[in-house]
Amino acid sequence: MLDNLDKFRCLKRSTTGAINIDPLQRGGVLTPEAREAMMEWADGYSVCDFCTGSLEGIENPPIKEFVHQVLPEFLEADQVRITHGAREGIFAAMHALCGAGETVVADGNAHYTTHLAAELAGLKVELVPAGEGPHYRVDPQGYQEAMERVMGRGERVGMAVLTYPDGNYGNLVEPKAVSEICHDEAVPLVVNGAYSVGRMPVGAKSLGADVIIGSGHKSMASSGPIGVIGATEELGSRIFRRSKLVPNKELEMLGCTLRGAGIMTMMASFPAVVARTKLWDEEVEKARWFAGEMEKLGMDLMGDRPHGHDLMFFKSQVLYEISKTAKKGRYFLYRELKKRDIFGIKPGLTRQFKLSCYQLPREDLKAVISAFEEIISSHPKA
Amino acid sequence: MLDNLDKFRCLKRSTTGAINIDPLQRGGVLTPEAREAMMEWADGYSVCDFCTGSLEGIENPPIKEFVHQVLPEFLEADQVRITHGAREGIFAAMHALCGAGETVVADGNAHYTTHLAAELAGLKVELVPAGEGPHYRVDPQGYQEAMERVMGRGERVGMAVLTYPDGNYGNLVEPKAVSEICHDEAVPLVVNGAYSVGRMPVGAKSLGADVIIGSGHKSMASSGPIGVIGATEELGSRIFRRSKLVPNKELEMLGCTLRGAGIMTMMASFPAVVARTKLWDEEVEKARWFAGEMEKLGMDLMGDRPHGHDLMFFKSQVLYEISKTAKKGRYFLYRELKKRDIFGIKPGLTRQFKLSCYQLPREDLKAVISAFEEIISSHPKA
């Protein structure tokens, strides 16, 4: 194997130049400034040129100001740290704040990493079930019931997690309602804002969250993996506690996390990210228009109505019918879109799929609509 | 704060173009191929274009082949995964393999993150003390004694860690000797190769290690944070076990780790990294020559003699004497080197400091020697 490595040298990304509607990727496209930062700070450990012992203490480049002054204001949190991503932030919060064997109450639409983080931290998970389709809504009142079920079994609720919005339907549960229920039971609320922090105008205080989690590569135009975690003073002092064995280092972060270019891309993109959150209403309006056009073609938007996020889940019986007789079967949609330089719907899906319009110009979205229109009209249905 | 963000847009690295002798940074300088990969794959989550559920399963780009075929051969390990860095790999191994309250036996020169990882995993640490200066050697036999101390207290030894080489003196402890002692007691040996994997020709089997840890940003010409972990089939099946709640995901990695450009830089640099490990003897010879020149100027190399690594620790009474009367006091050395475009010795250090010659051409190293010579001869001693 080690004699034949040339193939790894110059790998090209085959989707470059295409219209990408993958919800995972829309909010992580770098700004031009972040691309410049990437080249400037590419070398391993580059940000540590003037380190004095902790990543978030570095003054040149001004990571300290960014993490300790700018991000707390942006996230409406007392204390902020940089993490390897949203999942790693959720794990840190769970591991630091919950006792072994406690239960985390989470929304039924939570990302799978919420389950993994709880399991890795030695915790159980009790779900607030999502309702039936087409809306798949989570009722805030369900948090009360879930906590009662846990306590009724004689177990302790260590934490509640609300995914805002969830990554399947883009549904937005009223966070204040969840927050009040949690705080009445003295349970801290963690809001997983992987799809909101950096897209929507959100902050821990406005949401009623004790801890807020964000994802740089998902929603802050950053080169991943990278995320943010913000917390109240009280919970922050527990999550970001110092090590006993190495007293000048923060234990839960193993000292330093993002010792590389990723943090520089987050900083370089940040002015544009703050600006785009102020234009969120336009993104929502665009998403609603797009969904309307898709529905005219016979596909059905799932989740909240009116829809409040760029992430959309469609059911499309019409494409499923086509797939039954199409060349390449259920891969026909992927191939037809690829032919038109449109990427982001997973290969093999036709009956239901997710997509996002985020930060795409209307012309591109019109091209996507036209593509679906052409594909549907040019194929016989089964 | 959020109205004045322009300063974050276009931050430049002020050390660009300088001779950098920081041991942390020498092995992480990107290859030209990795710089290209960086731009090609810069966007958040770029490598997930064709994801089918796990990072290490991605075939386009060929991450699967790299992680499951190429790296195992390189690391002489049955199973390999990508981590966020060496410390995160050590934590994963400790968390997966040790029971709560067990003790980790580690060399007295271990990196501070070994202590942090153990503490975060709920483990105790028993050190094999390093000897006195100037050699600061760790005797393999000390592992036997440390394990006996732990067992004598009625505690269980969950794991042994050997830092190979350590990050202070660049000392290389005979790993086979440590391995035999550990295996006689049925204790798994983790070798922290943050300063060897990607520099020296090392592999888990040759070292007698059950788990081997590497750092991409420290020694594999990768944009950080990124690392590798390799393990035997048996220990790998425990470290990389699947989640119970989300059965298609690996628990300890929270599903996927390096969902970004870093893995692409590691792959792009890898052919050059493999090639450079074959020239390791030349690097050692260069380091010995450099140390000899420094000693002629009155500075003393600490650690192994003859020295076996590019990372070197010097004591320099002469520079300390100068600092007592120099303008700017103990910062004079940093400033004098900076004037000559040489970076990498921490500001304020004179009496002792670390540096590395790794991958620097002789001409640059001669410039460094000349700089020290000039600085010493042009300053009065106290």
From TrEMBL, chains A, B:
InterPro entries: PyrdxlP-dep_Trfase, PyrdxlP-dep_Trfase_major, PyrdxlP-dep_Trfase_small, Sep_Cys-tRNA_synth_arc, SepSecS/SepCysS. Its EC number is 2.5.1.73. Keywords: Protein biosynthesis, Pyridoxal phosphate, Transferase. It comes from Candidatus Methanocrinis alkalitolerans. Pfam families: SepSecS. NCBIfam families: PRK09331.1, SepCysS. One of its GO terms (molecular function) is Sep-tRNA:Cys-tRNA synthase activity. This is O-phospho-L-seryl-tRNA:Cys-tRNA synthase. Its cofactor is pyridoxal 5'-phosphate.
